Structure formats: structure tokens, C-alpha cells
Amino acid sequence: MNYVIIGNGIAGLSAAESIRQLDSTGHIFMISDEPLEPYCRPMISLVLQGVLDPSKLPIRKSGLYQFLNITPVLGNRVVQMDADRKTLLLSDGQILPFDRLLIATGADPRPIKAAGSHLHRIFFMRNRQHVMDMLEALPETRRALVIGGGLVGFKAAYGLLHRGVDVTMLIRSGYPLSLQVDADAGAMILRELVRHGLNVRVGAGVTAFTGNMAVTGAVLSDGSELPCDMVIIGKGVLPSVSFIPKDKVQVDLGVVVNAHMETTCPGVFAAGDVAESVDIARKTRWVNAIWPEAAMQGRLAGMNMAGRSVACNGSLSRNVIRIFDLDVMTAGWNHPPDDPRFEILTRFHPRSNTYRRLVFEGNRLIGATLVNHIESGGILMTMIQNAIPISIPRRNLLQFPISPKSVMF
Ligand SMILES: Cc1cc2nc3c(=O)[nH]c(=O)nc-3n(C[C@H](O)[C@H](O)[C@H](O)COP(=O)(O)OP(=O)(O)OC[C@H]3O[C@@H](n4cnc5c(N)ncnc54)[C@H](O)[C@@H]3O)c2cc1C
Question: Are both 2-108+237-305 and 325-407 of the same fold?
């Protein structure tokens, strides 16, 4: 059996490990355009911050490929997939045949439309090399502009602030982490960012960058100008699907997969940030681009590729992040449409600066936001993940922390 895995991130690696557990003789090829062993992508922000040496990023001991008997094809990009011939065309001209294929190509940073985006010292923060390039530019950086108030934008801003750079965060929506949290939690986060010295501008985007070779400023949509000598674009990501024949493999935003992580093309699987599976809370297809999902989906895909039929009940968005002195946890669907079938309960405790917001649909909890006192988050996430019918008074779930007695079913 010829297994080919495109992408050596956590999804690709988890799949390779599963395959090897079940099939000790099959050939595994692992292709990646990054010439590196698998590494912990979320931790690249700690390298920027200066608290982690890049040598600590790999997630397995060196010698991984020999240990798992994998043929690595690194520094090479898949440019085309032929689903009928079951072959891949690589950027160096090689053609690689496959029996079972895993697409685990992750996601690419979402570009922005602004004149001057080609200027030097404008970066994305998606991979190790991006951060190494930022570090090289750091000695001449006094003022940085971070575009986007999401998780990656926040991590970039935090890292640069820690390095003593004067950082402005530009958030088009009214508050940070707007995809994850509501306006009340967003206002708490915003206050915390400003309290710790971050300049935050809301309600504006960038229309153009100025500078000759390197960026020296940005023109904002409200007409104002901001001087800066480094820009980080953190406007989210898009699944990496450019090489996929869309007439053979269904692609919506991501590659559509079933409960076995198999695509609409038999023998071709997808996992991780590139995959679109059923979201447990929404009950519709969604791309949940987070590390634990990528690991789980990769493991599952690997088992199914090696012939063990295993299904999952879908994916779930979840995140925990510390924003200076605030702990923020989100899980499930926190932005349902304005519809009476959804019930929303909130509680704010000013003295402990604690906030909780729960979203219910029928007798199920489908979304939770916790700001501080996040120790009850595990209980809430389990309820969402397993669609546990709620038979207790719902307000019990707003306690900080939730008392175990009050959630006995
Ligand atoms: C700065 C940062 C912070 C993050 N923080 C968190 C966090 O706190 N919590 C969390 O849950 N998640 C976080 N994430 C997201 C998390 O890193 C991803 O969900 C996870 O890495 C996805 O893994 P993956 O294996 O699907 O894809 P990736 O890790 O993106 O791996 C895909 C690999 O495939 C390669 N590739 C792509 N296209 C091709 C091609 N055509 N040919 C060959 N190779 C290709 C890519 O270059 C890459 O090496 C963060 C991400 C970033 C960037």
C-alpha cells in the first residue's frame, strides 16, 4: 500500500503515526513545502516573544522519519493532483503515485487588499520562517502595526510588546476576538489590552501602506495615517486547497469530509485546518482550524486509511487564552442568529471581573464564553461536545465555579 500525506503539521504527523501502528509494511511518503520536521505551530508566537528558543519547536525527537519508516519529501510543494490517475505533481517536477492520500495542508494566511502590500517588513505569522524573518527585522523596529484582532493578531501584538516595541492593533470590528466572544467579553479584553500598553484602534482597516522599499506607514480607512516600521497581518486563514481538482474532490471553504475524514473522492482523505466537517454545535459543516481538532482528525484519518473503520461525531471550536491577567475560554457556537430557538444567559461579577455567557438550543448547551474563573470550562465543553440534554436549572451553570452537586444529572 502506498500512503501519501501532504503536509507534515500535527494532522499529517498524527495520521502517519496511526497508519504505522496498523500497517508496519506500507510505504508512507510525507510531503511538505516547509523543509522541517513537524513542529508546534502555535508556539512560534513564543519564539517571537523571546521566551522559547526555536530549537524547542519540534514536537517529536529527531529521527522521526527513520523511526516511523517514512520517506520525507521536504521543501517540495504539491502543485497538482490527478484524481483519476492517482498521482501528484510536485514543484520540482516529480510525479508521485498514491493508493491512499491524505490532504493535511493546513491553511494560508488571508491576504488583505491594500496598495503597497508588497513592501518589505510586512509579515504574516503562520510558520516558523515568518517569525525568523520578523526577528531579523526586530532590531530596527520601533513601531509595529498589527492588523486583525483575532488570536494570531493578539499573539503577535503580545510578542512584540514583550520585546519593547510600541504596538498598535487595528481591529475592524468593534472589539478583539470578535469571532469567538460577544461585545461584553470583547470590551473586557479591550480594556485589558489597553491597560497593558497596547494601542488599539477599532472600526478601521488599512487601505494602503506607504514607504519606498520598506513600510514606513499605513493609511487607514478613516483617512488617518499611522507611522510604523513593521506590519503583521493577522486577518485569519483560508484552507490550502489550490492544487485540488474541485470537480473530483468537493471543496466548500475547506475540503468536505465525512465522519471517517474521507473526501467525496474514494481513497482521498483530509484532516486539520484544511478540512470541513460537521460542527457539533452548529450541526452544519464548518472549518474548525484549531490544534486539538487537527491532531484528532489526523489520527482518525490515519486509522481509516489503514483500513480500520472509525467515525467521529464532528468537530468543535474551542480555545483557551491568557490575555495578560484575563483568562478567556470559548467553546462551541457563540454567535447564533437572532432567533427565539436560541436562549442566552449571561452573568457578570464586577468584583472578580468574571463573565460567563452560555448559549442554549432546546435542551442542549451549544456555546460557552468564560472570562476568568475558567476552571468550570471542562464541564461546559463536555456538555457541548456530547450534546448532553440539560435537565437541571440552567442558571446553575452560571456559578463561578460550578458546584459539582448542581450539575448532577
Ligand atoms: C501563531 C499561531 C498561534 C496559534 N495558536 C493556537 C492556539 O492557541 N490554539 C489552537 O488550538 N490552535 C492555534 N493555532 C492553530 C494551529 O496551529 C493549527 O490549527 C494547526 O497547526 C493545524 O495543523 P495542520 O496539520 O492542519 O496544518 P499545518 O500545521 O498548517 O500544516 C500543514 C503543512 O502543510 C504544508 N503545505 C501546505 N500546502 C502544501 C502543498 N501544496 N504542498 C506541500 N506542503 C504543503 C504547510 O506549509 C504546512 O507545513 C495557532 C496558529 C498560529 C499560526
Answer: no
